[in-house]
Rieske iron-sulfur protein
Amino acid sequence: MTRFKRNDPEITRRKFINVAMGTTAAVGGVSLLSTLGAANPVFRLTPDKMPPLKGDLLVHAEGSKEGRPVRLEDLSIQLVRAWPMGKNENGEDVIRKGDPNNILALYRFPQGQLVAPTNLEATINGQVVAYSDVCTHAGCSVSDSDVNAGEMRCPCHSGQYDPKRGAVVTGGPPPRPLAQLPITQQGENLVVSGFFLTYPYPFTSKEEWESHIQEVEEQLA
Ligand code: FES
């Protein structure tokens, strides 16, 4: 599991709040932060808004199996969308779809097709891989409609990614690859084994993401 630097004096708590709430600095953020600042709240993420956490079970996000665990046999070179599911304080299952940016894209490729810069240690048997399904350009959900099997395309501005090569950008305006989520196998199910390896949308830098992880870990401690 990737470890992260813990401190960055340039990252403010307000910036973290802004990102975690899924807002932008330009739209609505100012009034939101004014309100938060005036109330001086203790900010806490509810379990449904937590990012994917180690131990979370991946469940189907759509279709007839929505809400049920994704099984290895469900996966292929066709994109399968999933949510991470964890527990709340009472030990009850919570699907973390309170933050729409937690949506994931899963693939299972034949042995040998997943290659660098995919982090193969963060895959299952070098075949099953999980990425953020949120486009790094402006946050649309990335799809595999209207492209060849095993390719990805964003419907908003035609961004393209290669899921066999670490979801690198192969066309269009996205500024960086989709973030890869480390996963492991538990029986026939898929389980999260750590935080995203690189910063996912809507974070705008590695430092913001690391600060977010720090806040999450402090809340969970
Ligand atoms: S939001 Fe995906 S290419 Fe613009």
About this structure: The chain has three helices and eleven strands. Confidence is low (pLDDT under 50) at residues 1-41. The pocket of FE2/S2 (inorganic) cluster is lined by residues 135, 137-138, 140, 154, 156-157, 159, 172-174 (CB under 6 Å).
